[in-house]
Amino acid sequence: IGILGINYKLAFVASFATSVGQAQGITLQVTDRVGTSLTAPGDPGLVSLAADPRFVAAKAGHSGLSDYAPVLPAGGRGPTELSAYAPVAGTGWTVIASISKRVAFAGVMQLRNTVLAITAVLVFILLVGVWLIARSDRRRRMADQQVQRRDREMARVLDSTDEAFVSVDAAGNIAAWNARAADLYGWTAAEVLGRGMLEVLVPAPNRDAVREDLEAYRAGAPSLIVGQRVEMAAMHRDGHEIAVEAGVWALDDHEGF
Fold it and tell me: pLDDT tens-digit profile of 43-62?
């Protein structure tokens, strides 16, 4: 029968575990096969982890992770720790590494705070964007209302004047036609809006000359009609010619008359 004895200094084991724990930022505990802590401060024989579920699991040969709130000397439990435990093969010893849950999740908390901050900024930007869109839409509606009001006022002015008024767009189609024009030419506004001005108002023999004059004006040449008050022949709805004095001017965009 041979007996093999192994002697080890507990102070060395405790020093080694402390050094490794400090380097890794963790608390490192080593127990013997009966659960006595070999790394606890003071007399190791007075500290037993036999009832610690982490030791029990490691003693049974398991490795794993767990949340554990250590029992304090005065009773009660301390802050919850995140722990990893494993058996030391062939010895019956166990190793338990722990870190405060608050410390372990400090990076996660910082990430969460960063995400929340970014979310708050995005929400603020979204709210500012919605406010700007609402203000822009309100201004647009006000501008549209002003344009419509001016158009109504202009229509009332044109309808109250004693002269016929006709507006022509860039394509040469009639865009406005007041009541006096209806009396003079025999067409109602509903009948001529959108139709070509030359076909409605200008006698056929004169259409090419008028068309060429307006096109030359758009190209930058002087006009015999635009900017002038001229006497010319116009055409009534029933086909007969009538003598009119016409004043023609270009719109601000030089596209219509």
Answer: 555 688 888 899 999 999 99
> pTM surpassing 0.70?
no
What is the per-residue burial (b if ≥16 Cβ within 10 Å, else e) of 36-55? bbbbbeeebeebbbeebebb
Are 242 and 221 spatial neighbours (Cβ–Cβ below 8 Å)?
Answer: no
- Residue 209 in tokens: 């000359």
| DSSP 8-state code for residue 5 | -
d(CA 66, CA 100): 12
| Residue (of 106, 55, 108) closest to 83 by Cα position | 55
Burial degree of 56 (CB within 10 A; 0-12, 13-18, 19+)? middle
Residues whose CB falls within 8 Å of the CB of residue 14, separated by 6 or more in sequence, listed in order: 38, 39, 40, 41, 44
| Each residue's pLDDT tens digit, 175-189 | 888 888 999 999 998
In a 3-state reduction of DSSP, which class is residue 197?
helix
Q: Which helix (H) or strand (E) holds 229?
A: strand 229-235
pLDDT at 206 over 80: yes
Query: Which residue, among 27, 8, 31, has the nearest Cα to 18 in the 3D structure?
Result: 27
